[in-house]
Amino acid sequence: MDPMDSMDKKLKRDLSGGPLTRNGFDERIQQRIRERLDHRAVPGRRSWLLRFGGWSAGAVAMIMLIMAVAHLGGGPPAGNREQAIADFDPAAGNKENAGTLSYSTESPPQTALLIALRKDTAGREGEMSSAYRTLLVTADDSLPKKVAEDSGILMPYRTNFWRVEVGRVDLGQGEYQVAGAYNTQTNKKLDKPLKLYSKEGNPREIVRERIDYVGNRYIALTREIAAPGVKGEHDKRQEKQETTWVMEVSQLGQARELGSLTAGTEHHAVASAGPDQPLAAFLSNEEDMPMGTELIHNWTLTRKPGRWIAEKLLMPGTAAAAPLLQEIEQELDPTIVQHNQLDIPWNDIRAVEPAAVDAYTSPAGNLAVIMTDRRLLFYGMKDQSLTNLGFEEAVGQDERIIMVQWAIVPRYVEMWKEQAGSLLTD
Questions:
Q1: What distance, in Å, lies between the first and last C-alpha atoms of the chain?
Q2: Residue 269 CB neighbour total at 10 angstroms
Q3: Among 26-35, 273-282, 352-361, 389-398, which is the least confidently predicted range?
Q4: How far lies 335's CA from each of 99, 247, 328, in Å?
Q5: Which of 63, 186, 252, 346 has the fewest C-beta atoms under 10 angstroms from its C-beta?
Q6: Residue 167: Cβ-neighbour burial (10 angstroms; 0-12, 13-18, 19+)
Q7: Do residues 156 and 215 make contact, with C-beta atoms less than 8 angstroms apart?
Q8: Which band of pLDDT confidence, cut at 50, 70 and 90, is reported for residue 176?
Q9: What per-residue confidence (pLDDT) applies to 105?
Q10: Rounded to the nearest 5°, which phi and psi values hold at 181?
Q11: Residue 135 to residues 8, 99, 129, 151: CA-CA distances in angstroms?
Q12: Mind spelling out the 3-state secondary structure of the chain?
């Protein structure tokens, strides 16, 4: 037997027991991971030919039939797109959502964009603190313009807007800085939007969460749990574990129990990685979890130039090292990231902005966002090309984009202008 296959089987067996607990990996598993990474690099992306070869004959026949119908004039009109699956809930049915992608070339394209950024700052004792802000940007047949901006995260979810926050909760002992969310339509203003309680007293642990990604209905978190210092405060030498976690926004809208949080047993979103399938996510408490796929409890979403990717946690972070993450090779299902493509070639972007490090384009094809190390540039678009600069926004080197959400249906664009604009200026 190939020794690499034997090592793979051992790792899969050791890692199949669910999400990481408070104690994380033992030394035996850590050593196997290190040996595994030393012996084989991350596999490259499969070509589309290989993926195509894995399809069933029935699927191929269906595609040929659809293409034939479209050729005969029975398909949808060119330039019209619909994608109403971003907020699909199998239990509740597919409720209409403000992020539905639908527009027609018969009218000028419209775009509303909610974009959130996180800024990290190191304190005197070495601990990190994060601040968030959200911008509302619109574009139609004119150049992009900023409509409103506010601190915090304003997340569109279905036809509502949710405030997502990270703040301190005082339970008498320890330090608890956790994430929470609330629906702005049902809760205009809350005195305590972060709801945390403990069933078994207050463990003297330091708990800190920060938000790494916000999109569709998912929120990716990095969670740090540490033992307190000599006097209960932060101590650089303290035992620390840093893990990744993905939850639905509605889960963060409920009261969170401290023991479940620190033990890593909260209900959460589990990534399902199957061969020749997009990466999807399921709730950990659902009974109809997919069979025959790799279920990944500790994962996150991050950014590569031009697209979002998913990464799984191989080894928790410590006081001496960052978490060890590995890219998940599958493309992301639209239920996780709805518009995950760049509609302008990188060469064209860098011809206009040589310092560009990342870029985003509207599904409507009329707005592009280009990021450099110091600026966000908002350009108009036409025929998959940049037109003129609408405005620019200064960003710090320690600031990163964590949310990009689009609305291009005219009635939703107007709703975002009115409702989100009002919420970001209150």
A1: 65
A2: 23
A3: 26-35
A4: 11, 14, 16
A5: 186
A6: middle
A7: no
A8: confident
A9: 53
A10: -150, 155
A11: 45, 16, 21, 9
A12: CCHHHHHHHHHHHHHCCCCCCCCCCCHHHHHHHHHHHHHCCCCCCCCHHHHHHCCCHHHHHHHHHHHHHHHCCCCCCCCCEEECCCCCECCCECCCCCCCEEECCCCCCCEEEEEEEEEEEECCCCCEEEEEEEEEEEECCCCCEEEEEEECEEEEECCEEEEEEEEEECCCCCEEEEEEEEECCCCCCCCCCCCEECCCCCCCCEEEEEEEEEECCEEEEEEEEECCCCCCCCCCCCCEEEEEEEEEHHHHCCCEEHHHHHHCCCCCEEEEECCCCCEEEEECCCCCCCCCCEEECCEEEEEECCEEEEEEEEECECCCCCCEEEECCCCECCCCCCCCCCCCCHHHHHHHCCCCCEEEECCCCCEEEEECCCEEEEEEEECCEEEEEEEEEECCCCEEEEEEEEECCHHHHHHHHHHHHHHCCC
**CA 52 – CA 42 distance, rounded (Å):** 22
Put residue 424 in one of left, alpha, beta given phi > 0 → left and psi -120 to 50 → alpha: alpha
For the CA atoms of 226, 37, 3, 45, the dihedral, rounded to the nearest 10 degrees, stands at 120
Compute how many other C-beta atoms are within 10 angstroms of the C-beta atom of residue 54.
11
Amino acid (1-letter code) at residue 111: T
On average, the pLDDT of the chain sits at 78
Q: Average pLDDT of 296-315?
A: 96
Please compute the mean of the pLDDT values over residues 77-92 and round it to a whole number.
36
Average pLDDT score over residue span 154-167:
94
Q: Which two tokens stand for residue 405?
A: 């959400």
pLDDT at position 245? 94
Q: Give 70's pLDDT tier (boundaries 50, 70, 90).
A: very low
Q: How many residues in total does the chain contain?
A: 426
Between 271 and 26, residue with greater pLDDT: 271
Residue 425 CA: distances (Å) to CA of 149, 150, 323, 402, 420: 7, 7, 37, 21, 9
pLDDT per residue as tens digits for the range 18-63: 565 544 555 555 555 555 455 444 443 333 333 333 334 444 444 4
Q: Tell me what pLDDT residue 263 has.
A: 86
